Amino acid sequence: WGILFSHPRDFTPVCTTELGRAAKLAPEFSKRNVKMIALSIDNVQDHLSWSKVQGVGRHKGSLHCCLALKARGKAHTEQSTGSELYISNPKAAGQTPSAQPLTPSSCAQVFVFGPDKKLKLSILYPATTGRNFDEILRVVDSLQLTAYKKVATPVDWKPGDSVMVVPTLPDEEAKKLFPKGVFTKDLPSGKKYLRYTPQP
After folding, report:
1. Residue 25 φ/ψ, nearest 5 degrees
2. 0.70 cut: is pTM over it?
3. Catalytic (active site) residue 107
4. Which one is the CATH code of 2-70+103-143: 3.40.30.10, 2.102.10.10, 3.40.50.10070, 3.40.50.720?
5. How far apart are CA 45 and CA 67, in angstroms?
6. How far apart are CA 183 and CA 149, in angstroms?
7. How far apart are CA 107 and CA 111, in angstroms?
8. 128: helix, strand or coil
9. Each residue of 26-46: pLDDT tens digit?
10. In the CATH hierarchy, which fold is given to the domain comprising 151-197?
């Protein structure tokens, strides 16, 4: 499993807090066999200077931050939305670092990939809203559970909560697969499609 997320520049306030949180949670992601990679436009020297201030180096080997991304000095943009996927390099744009824009139209993305190298999840955040790595960790737990078990996770699910039996699984097969029991939620419509079971 892998997580790729954009980290536009070193010493920018929001992503500084994000990288710090990602580094702190890196051991939890490692327990789940997840490799995290943060993508940045800055050079290696800037990363080293930033990591000394932030303390990311304490988690060396757990969080790969940051991979210097230089694409002929061009900004990486998401053309389909017109939003910036990675905040543009201010040096390439003739700006000073302090002039770098940080607006709701600037975007930061998170991509989660499975062992089959296929995209399992993508989340788009405005650059002014910090990403929630506790939620990303929860999502990974759900993705891994539902990839290997015939279940789905309901709203606000957390590890250890009951899960839902997928609708395509017949009742008799569900009883065999989930020996702890399958419980159907009563609905006003009388439909019996909300089936729950303790997390396998």
Report:
1. -90, -5
2. yes
3. no
4. 3.40.30.10
5. 11
6. 17
7. 13
8. coil
9. 999 999 999 998 877 777 787
10. Antioxidant, Horf6; Chain A, domain 2 (3.30.1020)
